[in-house]
Amino acid sequence: MAKDKETSVKKGFQSEELASFGERTSLYAPFRVLGLVTSDGSPNSTGEVAPKPCLYELGIAPFVVIPIGRCLQLYDGRTLRLLSLSNPFPARITATAHLGRERLVVATERDLFIAEQLRLCAQIPNVHQGRISGLFSFQNGVFVSIDSVERCLRIFNRDNELIGEVFFGEDFTPNGRIIHPPAFLDTVCVGSEQGRLALVDIHRGRVTQTYNFSAFGAVTALAESPALDIIGVGFQSGSVVVFDIRQSRVIDQYDARTYLPVGAVAAVNALCFRNDDPQAFPHLLSIHAQGTLCVYDLDRQRLLEIMDRIHTGPCRMACFYRKEPILLTIGDDDNRMNMYVCDSPSGVPRLLKYRAGHRAPPTRVRFLGEDYRQLISSGSADQQLRVTSTISSYHHRELSQLTQRIRRARKRMRKHRKENLDQEPDEHTLEDHSEQELLLPPVTDFAVSDARRNDPNFANLVTCHLGSADVYTWRYEQNHRFRHILQYRGDAPEAFDSSTATCVSISTCGHFAAVGLSIGHIDLYNLQSGSHRWRITNAHRPGGVAGTAFDGSGGLLASVGTHDGRLNIYRHQTREKLIEIRTGSPSLHLIWSAVSDLLAFSCADDFSIKVYEPLSGRCVRELNGHTARITDLCFSSATDGRQILSTSLDGTLRTWDLVAGRCVDVLRMTAAPTSCAMSPKGDFIVTTNVGRIGVYMWLCKAYYRGPAEQGNLVALSALSHDGANHEELWMRHPVRLPDLATRWHPLDRPELEVIPVEDHRSGCLSLTIEPPEDGHSGVVFSNQPETHWLLLPYLDELRERNKPREHAQSTEKELKLRPLVSGLDMNEANRPGSCTAIDRPSNITVTGR
């Protein structure tokens, strides 16, 4: 052990540096994650409740702060547009509260932070020894925090000083549910896991009264009502109680188990009272564990309406805007935020707008669009096909799975029902089916092309789905399905086979789509008419087709099989088989580079990648290194094609140099990657990962010519004298996935140091970031993205490169014919002593100085 430690120190790697060695030497740096709206989709092994979002108003403008992981997201409450992101906090956020104006108090596991405009300005460390589960602020700077492990409530003043503590008994475990009854001065109402409520006077620091509802289970939701002394209490059993805390009596009680289906989880997640006109609409709304919304009429004491599955899972928050009939609900598992408006005479809410992302981990991602600043991701269990923008979250959208025909049929049916016409329903109305039944099966493979992007008669996106032989066409510019479904229909009834589509590819011209089937056939379709062109029978038997790909010119089609170990190349127009190569390995994926004209496919038996030259049929490279199944392949940028990126279930993303014939980078992630894609410019790569619903962006350091990637290639290719392998260090220390906010420095992250304020007020702390002593202090405090400051060392080189190569020189003949500004005499230039050079004012503005 001592020898190993001495060896690492000799090589220059201290023990504390090994944890970040993979990030220091990788070609890629974490940049940000896309597609997260209300949840990060990370597995919750402890069963802890997600932190409640924070809604506040500045004037008449509402804002919503949603904690996701270690970051905060600020949304406009009117448009649901993302306004700002915070820098990552040291740990996962467990609670938030609004202190007034743009100041927030944020809690992690044991520490408290004060943030202004989502920027840290103070820290109160080690106040709690357990776990902070709830926060509440009185809008004047005074706030309280709840520790569910220590069973205590701590009170802080506007100077962030701890001024009081209230400890609960053994029979009262606070769970973070806390409200302030408006009629009670300096008093909060706290819920517990035992089904009890406690009124705490924060001025005196003691519990004034307790209420026992243990028969209903744990308290899971609390809400203030417009009426004084009245609150709403939701319980684990599904019961909703309207309670008068001053008179200690139950005014009304509802049990959702009598309205929900048998076996449904009835726990109440959120409660809210309508406050715009409580006399005309005395309504109480409750949202339950499976996303069911119940509307209760408090005057008539009955259930008014049930709306099923407004969220697919629990709800983190539901609240009405102040004095407005607008309801905002924020889900947890479904990564969705809904806005409803109650404008009907009955007061039942209807959906106004929403913001959503993937609610299950995607398994495939690709770049698309003219500027390649958009991503398309699919393959998840949520049965969605989504387009994600790398620039603005406002352009995130889901492709509709309804065609124009289905839309027209639905519109006709609604018209017929309104007019009470007794006609048979259209088979395409889809009114009597659930939302999950209307969606297509999960996407297993898709292909996208921009060749016919501006032609509305051509589909530019083709998808094949799990357990289906039908291949669906789309136009992602119009955000909906295209009119054609690619189906093979033979001449005889026995021609209808029960196979499924396993892979798909689009030709370079964008006119044709090749579909591989599980029984070994290959079909070609026209994307304009949707007609079937030809079929290659038994192209790969036994087994099915694992992948198809067109070459750069669109004249050749290649395919590999899942079991037969063959690589076939056909002439596109005539179906003539040009080359048949015996690879000897079952395949998983197939890609064809249009730049280098090389074929690459992954093997299922030895987890290797084989690269072939299609014309000669020779295997030019065999790349070994993965230890588990390869999940995706892609070539590097469209102008290069010299590298291959591969992801595997061993948790690594490897970069292979085809010229050197070896792996030049290993990026081990904390979650195994399932797909990868590189932007055509080569500045970013994106990955999807197991168990994560976001799309993760990584910065390519080589694109910006930074020094980090120079030593990387040397470090991996050469072994040190003592035999230490750098690749083993990369495999030993995984790199953390990117956060919502940009990570300013990919190599070193400065530690946060808490320094007391100079006026020595007890408990009042400030946050100071000390710059590291490595010459990067100017970079640490920059607000610019990483792509901006990485180019700073090369500004002089860029100026030299942008200068004109040759200066314009005027000949003597041109100077004689050039007229003078002072006069029109052409012979004046030939007189002795005359000026031949003309001083002209310059209209060129030099920038960058």
Automatic annotation (TrEMBL):
<dbReference type="InterPro" id="IPR001680">
    <property type="entry name" value="WD40_rpt"/>
</dbReference>
<dbReference type="InterPro" id="IPR059157">
    <property type="entry name" value="WDR36-Utp21_N"/>
</dbReference>
<dbReference type="GO" id="GO:0034388">
    <property type="term" value="C:Pwp2p-containing subcomplex of 90S preribosome"/>
</dbReference>
<dbReference type="GO" id="GO:0006364">
    <property type="term" value="P:rRNA processing"/>
</dbReference>
<dbReference type="Pfam" id="PF25168">
    <property type="entry name" value="Beta-prop_WDR36-Utp21_2nd"/>
</dbReference>
<feature type="region of interest" description="Disordered">
    <location>
        <begin position="412"/>
        <end position="435"/>
    </location>
</feature>
<feature type="repeat" description="WD">
    <location>
        <begin position="623"/>
        <end position="666"/>
    </location>
</feature>
<keyword id="KW-0853">WD repeat</keyword>
<keyword id="KW-0677">Repeat</keyword>
<dbReference type="InterPro" id="IPR019775">
    <property type="entry name" value="WD40_repeat_CS"/>
</dbReference>
<feature type="domain" description="WDR36/Utp21 N-terminal">
    <location>
        <begin position="64"/>
        <end position="343"/>
    </location>
</feature>
<protein>
    <submittedName>
        <fullName>WD repeat-containing protein 36</fullName>
    </submittedName>
</protein>
<dbReference type="InterPro" id="IPR015943">
    <property type="entry name" value="WD40/YVTN_repeat-like_dom_sf"/>
</dbReference>
<dbReference type="GO" id="GO:0032040">
    <property type="term" value="C:small-subunit processome"/>
</dbReference>
<feature type="region of interest" description="Disordered">
    <location>
        <begin position="826"/>
        <end position="849"/>
    </location>
</feature>
<dbReference type="Pfam" id="PF25171">
    <property type="entry name" value="Beta-prop_WDR36-Utp21_1st"/>
</dbReference>
<feature type="compositionally biased region" description="Basic and acidic residues">
    <location>
        <begin position="426"/>
        <end position="435"/>
    </location>
</feature>
<dbReference type="InterPro" id="IPR036322">
    <property type="entry name" value="WD40_repeat_dom_sf"/>
</dbReference>
<dbReference type="InterPro" id="IPR011047">
    <property type="entry name" value="Quinoprotein_ADH-like_sf"/>
</dbReference>
